[in-house]
Design a protein that fits this description.
five-stranded parallel β-sheet; 16 helices; 447 residues; Elongation Factor Tu (Ef-tu), domain 3
Protein backbone atom coordinates (compact mmCIF):
# COMPACT_ATOMS: atom_id res chain seq x y z
CA UNK A 1 0.00 0.00 0.00
CA UNK A 2 1.35 3.43 -0.92
CA UNK A 3 1.01 6.17 1.65
CA UNK A 4 0.47 9.66 0.33
CA UNK A 5 1.96 12.20 2.69
CA UNK A 6 0.42 15.64 2.56
CA UNK A 7 2.97 18.43 2.52
CA UNK A 8 2.33 20.79 5.45
CA UNK A 9 2.54 24.50 4.69
CA UNK A 10 4.85 26.38 7.02
CA UNK A 11 3.26 27.62 10.23
CA UNK A 12 2.46 31.31 10.50
CA UNK A 13 5.25 33.60 11.64
CA UNK A 14 5.69 33.81 15.40
CA UNK A 15 3.82 36.72 16.90
CA UNK A 16 2.42 37.78 20.23
CA UNK A 17 -1.07 36.36 20.43
CA UNK A 18 -3.94 38.90 20.68
CA UNK A 19 -5.25 37.21 23.83
CA UNK A 20 -1.87 37.56 25.54
CA UNK A 21 -1.67 41.25 24.60
CA UNK A 22 -5.16 41.92 25.99
CA UNK A 23 -4.54 40.01 29.22
CA UNK A 24 -1.19 41.70 29.76
CA UNK A 25 -2.85 45.06 29.18
CA UNK A 26 -5.53 44.37 31.78
CA UNK A 27 -2.98 43.14 34.32
CA UNK A 28 -0.81 46.20 33.68
CA UNK A 29 -3.74 48.59 34.12
CA UNK A 30 -4.80 46.94 37.37
CA UNK A 31 -1.24 46.74 38.71
CA UNK A 32 -0.48 50.37 37.89
CA UNK A 33 -3.65 51.53 39.61
CA UNK A 34 -2.90 49.45 42.70
CA UNK A 35 0.45 51.24 42.93
CA UNK A 36 -1.16 54.67 42.48
CA UNK A 37 -3.84 53.96 45.11
CA UNK A 38 -1.21 52.76 47.57
CA UNK A 39 0.90 55.90 47.04
CA UNK A 40 -2.10 58.16 47.61
CA UNK A 41 -2.94 56.20 50.76
CA UNK A 42 0.47 56.83 52.31
CA UNK A 43 0.48 60.46 51.18
CA UNK A 44 -2.78 61.00 53.09
CA UNK A 45 -0.94 60.29 56.35
CA UNK A 46 -0.92 57.58 59.00
CA UNK A 47 -2.53 59.47 61.85
CA UNK A 48 -5.01 56.77 62.96
CA UNK A 49 -4.64 53.44 64.70
CA UNK A 50 -3.63 50.35 62.75
CA UNK A 51 -7.17 48.97 62.39
CA UNK A 52 -8.52 52.17 60.90
CA UNK A 53 -5.57 52.44 58.54
CA UNK A 54 -6.00 48.87 57.32
CA UNK A 55 -9.73 49.46 56.93
CA UNK A 56 -9.14 52.55 54.81
CA UNK A 57 -6.63 50.74 52.61
CA UNK A 58 -9.08 47.84 52.16
CA UNK A 59 -11.79 50.32 51.18
CA UNK A 60 -9.56 51.94 48.57
CA UNK A 61 -8.67 48.56 47.07
CA UNK A 62 -12.35 47.60 47.12
CA UNK A 63 -13.26 50.77 45.20
CA UNK A 64 -10.52 50.08 42.66
CA UNK A 65 -11.68 46.48 42.16
CA UNK A 66 -15.26 47.72 41.73
CA UNK A 67 -14.17 50.04 38.92
CA UNK A 68 -12.10 47.24 37.32
CA UNK A 69 -15.12 44.93 37.59
CA UNK A 70 -17.17 47.39 35.54
CA UNK A 71 -14.50 47.48 32.85
CA UNK A 72 -14.62 43.68 32.50
CA UNK A 73 -18.33 43.69 31.62
CA UNK A 74 -18.39 46.90 29.59
CA UNK A 75 -18.40 44.76 26.39
CA UNK A 76 -15.76 46.89 24.74
CA UNK A 77 -15.06 45.39 21.30
CA UNK A 78 -11.26 45.48 21.58
CA UNK A 79 -11.27 43.38 24.76
CA UNK A 80 -14.16 41.14 23.78
CA UNK A 81 -12.65 40.04 20.45
CA UNK A 82 -9.36 39.13 22.13
CA UNK A 83 -10.52 37.56 25.39
CA UNK A 84 -14.20 36.68 24.89
CA UNK A 85 -17.32 37.52 26.84
CA UNK A 86 -17.40 34.17 28.66
CA UNK A 87 -13.90 34.63 30.13
CA UNK A 88 -14.39 38.33 30.85
CA UNK A 89 -17.61 37.53 32.67
CA UNK A 90 -15.90 34.76 34.63
CA UNK A 91 -13.16 37.20 35.68
CA UNK A 92 -15.83 39.74 36.56
CA UNK A 93 -17.41 37.16 38.86
CA UNK A 94 -14.16 36.44 40.71
CA UNK A 95 -13.27 40.13 40.97
CA UNK A 96 -16.76 40.60 42.43
CA UNK A 97 -15.91 38.28 45.29
CA UNK A 98 -12.73 40.32 45.77
CA UNK A 99 -14.87 43.46 46.01
CA UNK A 100 -17.11 41.76 48.55
CA UNK A 101 -14.31 40.66 50.86
CA UNK A 102 -12.30 43.89 50.68
CA UNK A 103 -15.39 45.96 51.52
CA UNK A 104 -16.40 43.63 54.36
CA UNK A 105 -12.84 43.96 55.66
CA UNK A 106 -13.12 47.75 55.30
CA UNK A 107 -16.32 47.85 57.35
CA UNK A 108 -15.07 45.53 60.11
CA UNK A 109 -11.66 47.16 60.54
CA UNK A 110 -13.10 50.68 60.54
CA UNK A 111 -15.75 49.70 63.08
CA UNK A 112 -13.34 47.93 65.42
CA UNK A 113 -10.75 50.68 64.99
CA UNK A 114 -13.13 53.42 66.05
CA UNK A 115 -14.51 51.19 68.82
CA UNK A 116 -10.97 50.92 70.15
CA UNK A 117 -10.68 54.71 70.26
CA UNK A 118 -14.11 55.35 71.80
CA UNK A 119 -14.28 52.29 74.09
CA UNK A 120 -17.75 51.56 72.71
CA UNK A 121 -18.82 47.98 71.92
CA UNK A 122 -18.32 47.27 68.17
CA UNK A 123 -22.06 46.99 67.47
CA UNK A 124 -22.80 50.31 69.19
CA UNK A 125 -19.89 51.88 67.35
CA UNK A 126 -21.19 50.60 64.01
CA UNK A 127 -24.66 52.08 64.71
CA UNK A 128 -23.13 55.40 65.73
CA UNK A 129 -21.03 55.61 62.57
CA UNK A 130 -24.00 54.75 60.37
CA UNK A 131 -26.34 57.26 61.99
CA UNK A 132 -24.09 60.22 62.78
CA UNK A 133 -21.57 60.49 59.93
CA UNK A 134 -22.94 61.67 56.60
CA UNK A 135 -22.90 59.12 53.75
CA UNK A 136 -21.82 56.19 55.94
CA UNK A 137 -25.36 54.82 55.85
CA UNK A 138 -25.13 54.88 52.04
CA UNK A 139 -22.01 52.73 52.27
CA UNK A 140 -23.84 50.27 54.53
CA UNK A 141 -26.69 49.99 52.01
CA UNK A 142 -24.16 49.55 49.20
CA UNK A 143 -22.43 46.75 51.10
CA UNK A 144 -25.78 45.05 51.78
CA UNK A 145 -26.55 45.14 48.04
CA UNK A 146 -23.09 43.77 47.18
CA UNK A 147 -23.53 40.92 49.68
CA UNK A 148 -26.94 40.11 48.16
CA UNK A 149 -25.50 40.05 44.63
CA UNK A 150 -22.59 37.92 45.88
CA UNK A 151 -24.96 35.38 47.39
CA UNK A 152 -27.09 35.02 44.26
CA UNK A 153 -23.91 34.76 42.16
CA UNK A 154 -22.60 31.80 44.16
CA UNK A 155 -22.92 28.54 42.26
CA UNK A 156 -25.43 26.94 44.62
CA UNK A 157 -27.81 29.89 44.16
CA UNK A 158 -27.07 30.61 40.50
CA UNK A 159 -28.14 27.10 39.49
CA UNK A 160 -31.54 27.60 41.11
CA UNK A 161 -32.36 30.94 39.54
CA UNK A 162 -33.46 31.71 36.01
CA UNK A 163 -31.12 33.94 34.05
CA UNK A 164 -33.74 36.73 33.99
CA UNK A 165 -34.13 36.69 37.80
CA UNK A 166 -30.39 36.59 38.39
CA UNK A 167 -29.81 39.40 35.90
CA UNK A 168 -32.49 41.62 37.47
CA UNK A 169 -30.96 41.22 40.94
CA UNK A 170 -27.49 41.78 39.49
CA UNK A 171 -28.54 45.21 38.16
CA UNK A 172 -28.62 46.45 41.76
CA UNK A 173 -24.82 46.33 41.62
CA UNK A 174 -24.96 49.61 39.69
CA UNK A 175 -26.93 51.17 42.56
CA UNK A 176 -24.30 49.87 44.97
CA UNK A 177 -21.53 51.41 42.84
CA UNK A 178 -23.15 54.85 42.91
CA UNK A 179 -23.80 54.67 46.67
CA UNK A 180 -20.25 53.53 47.38
CA UNK A 181 -18.80 56.26 45.18
CA UNK A 182 -20.85 58.97 46.88
CA UNK A 183 -19.57 57.67 50.24
CA UNK A 184 -15.99 57.79 48.99
CA UNK A 185 -16.40 61.34 47.65
CA UNK A 186 -17.84 62.59 50.96
CA UNK A 187 -15.62 60.95 53.58
CA UNK A 188 -12.75 59.23 51.75
CA UNK A 189 -9.40 60.42 53.06
CA UNK A 190 -7.82 60.79 49.63
CA UNK A 191 -10.77 62.86 48.44
CA UNK A 192 -10.57 65.26 51.36
CA UNK A 193 -6.78 65.69 51.65
CA UNK A 194 -5.37 65.58 48.08
CA UNK A 195 -6.56 67.41 45.00
CA UNK A 196 -4.46 65.11 42.82
CA UNK A 197 -5.98 61.99 44.36
CA UNK A 198 -9.44 63.51 43.98
CA UNK A 199 -8.84 64.08 40.27
CA UNK A 200 -7.51 60.52 39.96
CA UNK A 201 -10.59 58.94 41.52
CA UNK A 202 -13.00 61.06 39.46
CA UNK A 203 -11.09 60.04 36.32
CA UNK A 204 -11.07 56.36 37.32
CA UNK A 205 -14.79 56.20 38.03
CA UNK A 206 -15.58 58.29 34.95
CA UNK A 207 -13.59 55.90 32.76
CA UNK A 208 -15.21 52.80 34.31
CA UNK A 209 -18.79 54.06 34.10
CA UNK A 210 -18.12 55.64 30.70
CA UNK A 211 -16.86 52.31 29.36
CA UNK A 212 -20.07 50.60 30.47
CA UNK A 213 -22.21 53.34 28.89
CA UNK A 214 -20.20 53.17 25.66
CA UNK A 215 -20.15 49.39 25.32
CA UNK A 216 -23.66 48.62 26.53
CA UNK A 217 -25.66 51.61 25.33
CA UNK A 218 -23.92 53.79 22.74
CA UNK A 219 -22.44 51.13 20.46
CA UNK A 220 -25.57 48.90 20.32
CA UNK A 221 -27.83 51.88 19.63
CA UNK A 222 -25.49 53.25 16.99
CA UNK A 223 -25.14 49.95 15.16
CA UNK A 224 -28.84 49.17 15.18
CA UNK A 225 -29.80 52.64 13.98
CA UNK A 226 -27.30 52.26 11.15
CA UNK A 227 -28.05 48.69 10.06
CA UNK A 228 -31.86 48.57 10.53
CA UNK A 229 -32.01 44.79 10.93
CA UNK A 230 -35.11 42.82 9.96
CA UNK A 231 -36.09 39.16 9.70
CA UNK A 232 -35.98 38.17 6.04
CA UNK A 233 -36.76 34.43 6.33
CA UNK A 234 -37.60 31.78 8.93
CA UNK A 235 -36.58 28.29 7.83
CA UNK A 236 -37.38 25.18 9.92
CA UNK A 237 -34.38 22.83 9.77
CA UNK A 238 -36.12 20.00 11.68
CA UNK A 239 -38.91 19.50 14.20
CA UNK A 240 -36.95 21.34 16.90
CA UNK A 241 -34.42 23.48 15.01
CA UNK A 242 -35.04 26.70 13.09
CA UNK A 243 -32.82 29.09 11.17
CA UNK A 244 -33.58 32.81 11.03
CA UNK A 245 -32.13 35.01 8.31
CA UNK A 246 -31.63 38.70 9.05
CA UNK A 247 -30.94 41.45 6.54
CA UNK A 248 -30.25 45.15 6.89
CA UNK A 249 -28.33 48.12 5.58
CA UNK A 250 -24.54 48.26 5.19
CA UNK A 251 -24.01 44.79 6.63
CA UNK A 252 -20.61 44.70 4.97
CA UNK A 253 -19.62 47.34 7.54
CA UNK A 254 -20.80 45.29 10.53
CA UNK A 255 -17.63 43.97 12.27
CA UNK A 256 -18.91 40.41 12.69
CA UNK A 257 -16.78 37.31 12.19
CA UNK A 258 -17.53 33.61 11.90
CA UNK A 259 -17.69 32.08 15.39
CA UNK A 260 -19.17 35.13 17.09
CA UNK A 261 -22.63 35.58 18.56
CA UNK A 262 -25.17 38.35 19.13
CA UNK A 263 -27.76 38.99 21.83
CA UNK A 264 -30.90 39.02 19.68
CA UNK A 265 -34.13 40.86 20.47
CA UNK A 266 -37.00 40.26 18.07
CA UNK A 267 -39.21 43.32 18.45
CA UNK A 268 -42.63 41.70 18.56
CA UNK A 269 -45.16 42.48 21.27
CA UNK A 270 -44.38 39.23 23.07
CA UNK A 271 -40.60 39.08 22.69
CA UNK A 272 -39.17 42.62 22.58
CA UNK A 273 -37.91 42.42 26.17
CA UNK A 274 -36.11 39.07 25.74
CA UNK A 275 -32.46 39.00 24.65
CA UNK A 276 -31.20 35.57 23.62
CA UNK A 277 -27.60 34.69 22.73
CA UNK A 278 -27.32 32.83 19.42
CA UNK A 279 -24.17 32.30 17.39
CA UNK A 280 -23.99 33.01 13.70
CA UNK A 281 -24.47 29.71 11.89
CA UNK A 282 -23.01 31.00 8.63
CA UNK A 283 -20.02 33.23 7.99
CA UNK A 284 -21.13 36.87 7.49
CA UNK A 285 -21.17 37.69 3.79
CA UNK A 286 -22.09 41.37 3.93
CA UNK A 287 -25.66 40.70 2.72
CA UNK A 288 -27.34 38.75 5.52
CA UNK A 289 -26.82 37.13 8.90
CA UNK A 290 -28.09 33.73 9.94
CA UNK A 291 -28.69 32.25 13.37
CA UNK A 292 -29.84 28.71 14.05
CA UNK A 293 -31.55 27.76 17.31
CA UNK A 294 -32.73 24.53 18.89
CA UNK A 295 -35.91 24.45 20.96
CA UNK A 296 -35.02 24.63 24.65
CA UNK A 297 -38.19 26.17 26.06
CA UNK A 298 -41.18 28.31 25.16
CA UNK A 299 -38.98 31.23 24.08
CA UNK A 300 -36.94 29.32 21.52
CA UNK A 301 -39.97 27.32 20.41
CA UNK A 302 -41.68 30.58 19.44
CA UNK A 303 -38.83 31.57 17.12
CA UNK A 304 -40.28 29.60 14.21
CA UNK A 305 -43.40 31.77 14.38
CA UNK A 306 -41.66 35.15 14.12
CA UNK A 307 -43.16 37.04 11.17
CA UNK A 308 -40.95 37.94 8.25
CA UNK A 309 -40.24 41.66 8.38
CA UNK A 310 -39.97 41.80 12.19
CA UNK A 311 -37.50 44.44 13.37
CA UNK A 312 -34.45 43.05 15.17
CA UNK A 313 -32.29 44.70 17.83
CA UNK A 314 -28.95 42.87 18.02
CA UNK A 315 -26.22 43.55 20.57
CA UNK A 316 -22.81 42.45 19.41
CA UNK A 317 -20.99 40.85 17.78
CA UNK A 318 -19.38 39.23 20.81
CA UNK A 319 -16.86 36.48 21.41
CA UNK A 320 -13.25 35.54 20.78
CA UNK A 321 -14.09 32.20 19.15
CA UNK A 322 -12.68 33.30 15.79
CA UNK A 323 -9.81 32.68 13.43
CA UNK A 324 -8.08 35.75 14.89
CA UNK A 325 -6.51 33.38 17.43
CA UNK A 326 -5.17 30.73 15.07
CA UNK A 327 -1.58 29.62 15.60
CA UNK A 328 -1.27 26.68 13.17
CA UNK A 329 -2.07 26.20 9.45
CA UNK A 330 -4.35 23.17 10.01
CA UNK A 331 -7.40 22.89 12.20
CA UNK A 332 -9.51 20.42 14.18
CA UNK A 333 -13.12 21.46 14.83
CA UNK A 334 -15.10 19.60 17.51
CA UNK A 335 -18.81 20.34 17.99
CA UNK A 336 -21.50 18.89 20.20
CA UNK A 337 -25.23 19.24 19.53
CA UNK A 338 -26.33 22.72 18.53
CA UNK A 339 -22.79 23.89 19.32
CA UNK A 340 -22.25 23.12 15.64
CA UNK A 341 -23.59 26.56 14.69
CA UNK A 342 -20.41 28.63 15.29
CA UNK A 343 -18.29 25.67 14.13
CA UNK A 344 -20.17 25.52 10.82
CA UNK A 345 -19.56 29.26 10.34
CA UNK A 346 -15.87 28.84 11.18
CA UNK A 347 -15.50 26.00 8.68
CA UNK A 348 -16.77 28.30 5.96
CA UNK A 349 -14.08 30.88 6.75
CA UNK A 350 -11.11 28.60 7.49
CA UNK A 351 -8.18 28.07 5.15
CA UNK A 352 -5.86 25.08 5.32
CA UNK A 353 -6.77 21.46 5.98
CA UNK A 354 -9.53 20.90 8.54
CA UNK A 355 -11.01 17.93 10.36
CA UNK A 356 -14.53 18.28 11.76
CA UNK A 357 -15.84 15.94 14.47
CA UNK A 358 -19.55 16.31 15.19
CA UNK A 359 -20.74 14.58 18.39
CA UNK A 360 -24.48 13.90 18.75
CA UNK A 361 -26.68 11.33 20.44
CA UNK A 362 -28.40 10.16 17.23
CA UNK A 363 -28.24 10.96 13.52
CA UNK A 364 -31.47 12.96 13.86
CA UNK A 365 -29.70 15.36 16.27
CA UNK A 366 -27.12 16.36 13.64
CA UNK A 367 -28.21 19.93 12.92
CA UNK A 368 -27.35 21.32 9.45
CA UNK A 369 -25.64 18.02 8.54
CA UNK A 370 -26.49 18.21 4.85
CA UNK A 371 -24.89 21.65 4.70
CA UNK A 372 -21.84 20.35 6.54
CA UNK A 373 -21.37 17.51 4.07
CA UNK A 374 -21.55 19.85 1.09
CA UNK A 375 -19.22 22.38 2.68
CA UNK A 376 -16.76 19.67 3.73
CA UNK A 377 -16.68 18.23 0.23
CA UNK A 378 -16.07 21.65 -1.29
CA UNK A 379 -13.24 22.48 1.11
CA UNK A 380 -11.64 19.03 1.36
CA UNK A 381 -12.52 18.72 5.04
CA UNK A 382 -12.58 15.36 6.83
CA UNK A 383 -16.02 15.07 8.42
CA UNK A 384 -16.71 12.56 11.23
CA UNK A 385 -20.20 12.14 12.67
CA UNK A 386 -19.87 10.46 16.09
CA UNK A 387 -23.15 9.19 17.53
CA UNK A 388 -24.19 7.33 20.64
CA UNK A 389 -24.91 7.93 24.34
CA UNK A 390 -22.67 10.13 26.46
CA UNK A 391 -20.99 7.11 28.05
CA UNK A 392 -18.67 5.61 27.19
CA UNK A 393 -16.80 8.73 26.10
CA UNK A 394 -16.32 8.48 22.34
CA UNK A 395 -14.02 11.50 22.34
CA UNK A 396 -11.60 10.11 24.93
CA UNK A 397 -7.88 10.62 24.22
CA UNK A 398 -7.45 7.28 22.43
CA UNK A 399 -10.49 7.92 20.22
CA UNK A 400 -9.35 11.43 19.30
CA UNK A 401 -5.85 10.19 18.50
CA UNK A 402 -7.27 7.55 16.15
CA UNK A 403 -9.47 10.04 14.33
CA UNK A 404 -6.83 12.78 14.16
CA UNK A 405 -3.30 11.38 14.56
CA UNK A 406 -1.71 14.82 14.12
CA UNK A 407 -3.98 16.54 16.65
CA UNK A 408 -1.01 18.17 18.41
CA UNK A 409 -0.08 19.94 15.18
CA UNK A 410 -3.46 21.62 14.77
CA UNK A 411 -5.44 24.45 16.22
CA UNK A 412 -8.46 22.94 17.97
CA UNK A 413 -11.81 24.75 18.20
CA UNK A 414 -14.34 23.19 20.60
CA UNK A 415 -17.99 24.20 21.11
CA UNK A 416 -20.74 22.20 22.76
CA UNK A 417 -22.61 21.59 26.01
CA UNK A 418 -20.51 22.33 29.12
CA UNK A 419 -20.08 18.67 30.08
CA UNK A 420 -18.89 17.62 26.64
CA UNK A 421 -16.61 20.66 26.31
CA UNK A 422 -14.95 19.94 29.64
CA UNK A 423 -14.41 16.28 28.72
CA UNK A 424 -12.88 17.19 25.35
CA UNK A 425 -10.58 19.74 26.95
CA UNK A 426 -9.33 17.07 29.38
CA UNK A 427 -8.68 14.71 26.47
CA UNK A 428 -6.75 17.39 24.58
CA UNK A 429 -4.59 18.09 27.63
CA UNK A 430 -3.86 14.37 28.05
CA UNK A 431 -2.83 14.20 24.40
CA UNK A 432 -0.40 17.05 24.96
CA UNK A 433 -2.04 19.64 22.70
CA UNK A 434 -0.39 22.99 23.58
CA UNK A 435 -2.70 25.32 25.50
CA UNK A 436 -2.31 28.15 23.00
CA UNK A 437 -3.69 25.90 20.24
CA UNK A 438 -6.95 25.16 22.11
CA UNK A 439 -9.86 27.55 21.57
CA UNK A 440 -13.23 26.83 23.13
CA UNK A 441 -16.64 28.34 23.63
CA UNK A 442 -18.87 26.98 26.38
CA UNK A 443 -22.36 26.72 24.92
CA UNK A 444 -24.14 28.71 27.63
CA UNK A 445 -25.00 32.35 28.21
CA UNK A 446 -22.00 34.15 29.59
CA UNK A 447 -22.45 34.70 33.28
Amino acid sequence: MTTVQRVQPPPPAAAIRPKVVARAGLYAVLGANVCVVTIFFFQAGLGSNALILLGRLAGLYGALLMAFQLLLVARLPWLDRRIGMDRLTSWHRWVGFGVLWTLVTHMLFITFGYAQLSSLPPVDQFVELATTIEYVLRAVVALALIITVGIVSARFARRRLSYETWHFIHLYMYVAVLLAFSHQVAVGTTFTTSATATAYWWTLWGAALGSVFLGRVVLPLRRNLRHQLRVSAVVPESDNVVSIYVTGRDLDQLPARAGQFFLWRFLTRERWWQANPFSLSAAPDGRQLRLTAKTAGDGTAALRHIPVGTRVFAEGPYGAFTTLHRTRPDTLLIAGGVGITPIRALLEELHGHAVLIYRVATDRDAVLYDELRGLAAAKGTELHLVTGPATPDKLAPEALARLVPDVCERDVFVCGPPGMTSAVLRSLRELGVPRQQIHFERFSLAG
